[in-house]
From TrEMBL:
GO molecular function: FAD binding; oxidoreductase activity
Source organism, top-level taxon: Bacteria
InterPro entries hit by this protein: FAD-bd_PCMH, FAD-bd_PCMH-like_sf, FAD-bd_PCMH_sub1, FAD-bd_PCMH_sub2, FAD-oxidored/transferase_4, Oxid_FAD_bind_N
Any matching Pfam family: FAD_binding_4
Limits of the FAD-binding PCMH-type domain: 36-215
GO biological-process terms attached to the record: respiratory electron transport chain
Organism: Micromonospora viridifaciens
Keywords, ordered alphabetically: Oxidoreductase
Name the UniProt record assigns to this protein: FAD binding domain-containing protein
Length: 216
């Protein structure tokens, strides 16, 4: 990781969106059980899809690996960097907006960093139920729920997160944005984006989910 790349990332996300000191990064370098721990060159906290795309493009060009991180509530260390100190953690903590809620169509479009409880609360305020529910719902994020294909307590009745997802907006490894946000349940135009971009793959598929349209 060069000083030039650090400067470029700071230009993209602003001074508050880039963490580089040990104290600033500490909470992003271990899981909540303190079982897995690593080090990172920086923690980047973009606030928009365009900022995510720019960060990914810069890191791709520099050959620097990215570790996406949502609520960091996973139990298998998938959101924790390795010990090389050369990786960049990309946190979705600043991407928590609910972009749209269509009560008539029973769909909600949220960003990857949206906390599951806030999504459930927004649905409830509209007289609807977003059925995904699990113990970490007060801190886990929709992006993480998608990455792990979370099922929760109502999985037998409502299915997994993949079943609840209609469309995705993703950033590809070279920084291109693919917009597959759709609110249509019966959609045969192309591939199933939730399956194609690794819902349940925990990062195995090389794409970063930045927003999703879900239904209930």
């Amino acid at each position: 990781m060069t000083a030039e790349l650090i400067s470029q990332l700071r230009d993209i996300v602003g001074p508050t969106g880039l963490l580089t000191t040990p104290d600033q990064m500490a909470g992003h370098l271990t899981d909540w059980r303190n079982v897995y721990a690593g080090t990172a060159a920086a923690v980047v906290r973009p606030a928009t899809t365009e900022e995510v795309a720019a960060v990914v493009a810069r890191c791709h060009a520099a050959g620097v690996a990215i570790v996406p991180q949502g609520g960091n509530t996973g139990l298998c260390g998938g959101a924790v960097p390795d010990t090389s100190g050369r990786q960049v953690v990309l946190s979705t903590a600043r991407m928590r907006r609910i972009r749209d809620l269509d009560a008539a169509n029973q769909t909600i479009t949220v960003e990857a960093g949206a906390v599951l409880q806030s999504v459930r609360d927004a649905a409830a305020a509209a007289g609807r139920l977003f059925p995904l529910s699990l113990g970490a719902q007060g801190s886990c994020t929709v992006g993480g729920n998608l990455a792990t294909n979370a099922g929760g307590t109502g999985v037998l009745r409502y299915g997994t997160m993949r079943d609840l997802t209609l469309g995705l907006e993703v950033v590809l490894p070279d920084g291109r944005i693919w917009n597959g946000l759709r609110a249509l349940r019966k959609d045969n135009t192309g591939y199933d984006s939730a399956a194609e971009f690794g819902s349940g793959g925990e990062g195995e598929v090389q794409a970063l989910e930045v927003a999703g349209t879900c239904w209930w």
